[in-house]
Amino acid sequence: RFPFTMLVLQKAIKMVWELPDVMRVAYAFVLVMLCWMALWSFGVSGIVAMPIPNCGQWWLVLALSVSLFWTGAVLSNTVHVIVSGMVFLVLIHGGQAAASMPPKPLLKSLQYAVTTSFGSICYGSLFTAAIRTLRWEVCDLLARVSWCEIFNYQLIACHLFTPFHSLYLISD
């Protein structure tokens, strides 16, 4: 199994490296995510600095954390769809220089990702964002408990994180 997996990964990496346009799109999405994180951090710091009563800060930070994780998952999954679309076009047409290859295949793949597939990308990313936020909150709760309660919380965390980890393995 392992040698076959390594062979498949080597072929996939070689194919993606031969598509420099795909790498440029991935870098552009990384830049967009960095800009979103900078804007998000200003928003969170503003909420933390404001005196909001009745645990309002906690709810706002929770909502912003869902938005951060959701945006990151949407951008990441959009890049996955673009890359898989380009790889599909290259494989189905027999190479990037083939005569049957459509003009501007990267734009076709990008258009497919942000139109036809975008709803599915957003919907699927919402679940991973909710799971990551819940995991983040549980980790925060575990960091605040006293040492005598840590054993009970570790049992809870083990039961919570095992299904989350299996979902990550399935979805990624």
Automatic annotation (TrEMBL):
<dbReference type="GO" id="GO:0022857">
    <property type="term" value="F:transmembrane transporter activity"/>
</dbReference>
<keyword id="KW-0812">Transmembrane</keyword>
<dbReference type="Pfam" id="PF04515">
    <property type="entry name" value="Choline_transpo"/>
</dbReference>
<comment type="similarity">
    <text>Belongs to the CTL (choline transporter-like) family.</text>
</comment>
<feature type="transmembrane region" description="Helical">
    <location>
        <begin position="57"/>
        <end position="75"/>
    </location>
</feature>
<keyword id="KW-0472">Membrane</keyword>
<protein>
    <recommendedName>
        <fullName>Choline transporter-like protein</fullName>
    </recommendedName>
</protein>
<dbReference type="GO" id="GO:0005886">
    <property type="term" value="C:plasma membrane"/>
</dbReference>
<dbReference type="InterPro" id="IPR007603">
    <property type="entry name" value="Choline_transptr-like"/>
</dbReference>
<comment type="function">
    <text>Choline transporter.</text>
</comment>
<feature type="transmembrane region" description="Helical">
    <location>
        <begin position="112"/>
        <end position="131"/>
    </location>
</feature>
<keyword id="KW-1133">Transmembrane helix</keyword>
<feature type="transmembrane region" description="Helical">
    <location>
        <begin position="25"/>
        <end position="50"/>
    </location>
</feature>
